[in-house]
Specification:
The chain is mainly beta. The protein has one helix spanning 3-12; strands at residues 13-26, 30-43, 48-51, 58-59, 62-63, 67-76, 80-89, 94-103, 106-119. The protein has a nine-stranded antiparallel beta sheet. A hairpin with a 4-residue loop joins strand 2 and strand 3.
Length: 131
């Protein structure tokens, strides 16, 4: 790999450690707030990412000049709705995540708000599969 390609790869592949507060709500548990830490491995060139122990990679939803959307999905049917979004402000490092599911009138909402710091890329694991 040429030095320029190595530098480009180092700039576009990195880890983010995000910390903040997770707020959850359901009728069963009521409102609960607690601290969270999430570690994301991100490769902007390959447009893939994973979280935590990295049991699998997923495509990055959108890369914008000032925002990175890891997930950005809305789903609706006759009886349920779901929102699953996870994004980072690339200028400030602010992290936002929202998972909201409503099924037959029962709603569960998990919202995370925090801040991310960049660190060295720890790579993606090699997956051993049988098929």
């Amino acid at each position: 790999m040429t030095p320029l390609l190595a530098l480009t790869a180092a700039v576009s592949a990195f880890n983010l450690t995000c910390t903040g507060t997770m707020h959850s709500f359901s009728r069963a548990t009521g409102s609960v707030s607690k601290p969270y830490t999430a570690i994301y491995r991100i490769d902007l060139t390959r447009k893939i990412w994973c979280e935590g122990d990295c049991k699998g990679t997923a495509p990055i939803a959108r890369v914008l000049p000032t925002s990175l959307f890891l997930r950005d999905e809305d789903g609706n049917s006759a009886s349920d709705t779901q929102t699953d979004a996870d994004w980072i402000d690339r200028e400030t490092g602010e992290h936002h995540s929202l998972l909201e599911t409503s099924l037959s009138g029962m709603t569960v909402r998990i919202r995370m708000e925090g801040h991310c710091e960049r660190s060295a890329f720890t790579g993606f694991p090699k997956f051993k599969t049988k098929f």
